[in-house]
Design a protein that fits this description.
Elements: H1 16-27, H2 34-43, H3 47-56, H4 64-77
Helix pairs in contact: 2-3, 2-4, 3-4
């Protein structure tokens, strides 16, 4: 069976997390917060987390070249 992924995009405080969590809970789906994923990588001092820190320390967004591998790794772990 082919898996499906839903992505909620929007500015901060627009309800992405609220609606995503609600949908996940009601439908028994996996839920990913990229913020939580990034905080975990920083806490665990992973290679990608350390690379992300260089951007965060400068007050910059973490680029896709770092975030996409983190997300793909998480998706792969979900089976």
């Amino acid at each position: 069976m082919k898996s499906r992924h839903l992505v909620f995009l929007g500015p901060p405080a627009s309800g992405k997390g609220t609606q995503g969590l609600r949908l996940a809970r009601e439908n028994h789906l996996a839920y990913l917060s990229t913020g939580a994923l990034l905080r975990g990588a920083l806490r665990d001092k992973t290679a990608l987390g350390q690379e992300a820190r260089t951007f965060l320390d400068r007050g910059e967004y973490v680029p896709d070249k770092i975030m996409i591998p983190m997300v793909l790794e998480w998706v792969g772990e979900q089976g």
